[in-house]
Amino acid sequence: NAGVMQNPRHLVRRRGQEARLRCSPMKGHSHVYWYRQLPEEGLKFMVYLQKENIIDESGMPKERFSAEFPKEGPSILRIQQVVRGDSAAYFCASSDRVLSYEQYFGPGTRLTVT
Amino acid sequence: GEDVEQSLFLSVREGDSSVINCTYTDSSSTYLYWYKQEPGAGLQLLTYIFSNMDMKQDQRLTVLLNKKDKHLSLRIADTQTGDSAIYFCAVLPGAGSYQLTFGKGTKLSVIP
């Protein structure tokens, strides 16, 4: 019974490059949430997606960031033209229904921008 | 918006009890959680409590909720070295919400 999978676990990008972070939710889960953890901070909500739909992207920066959750395959968080301030741990969580009070987190992707 | 505060560090001796505290601001918060993060790992959901409860016990873990003071605590009995980690308090603010609001985390160090 696999949990939430994220890859890569570590990603190093130079300033100006693109970063693609992938998240496969738990089996049977169709709701995905992305959170960002800056150094020595708590996690901050970024975006909530269901299959083929972005439900709430109120926590996501307006520029350079985008997310998708296609009908087939993992959810993708894409950061274009990365800057040093994007260095953080990006966590994905999933749940099995809307308004579920249980969100299960993946191991995270640690992005370092050099 | 919701604000969640935790002390940053706690140090206890192995075998003692640990108490990690958390305060929040939104009185309409429905579910309150404790997550554990070990170094380099993701977040493990330890336990949660619904806002109409005062206490929840699960083996070595006891969660206490004081709604009047908006105070949540996690007690770990017989603390072990394997309990060393960062513990995050998180709150689901209000019915119909899905955005968890997290504190900055309390780093628990267990001294052998």
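qc> Chain A is about 0% helix and 50% strand.
qc> done
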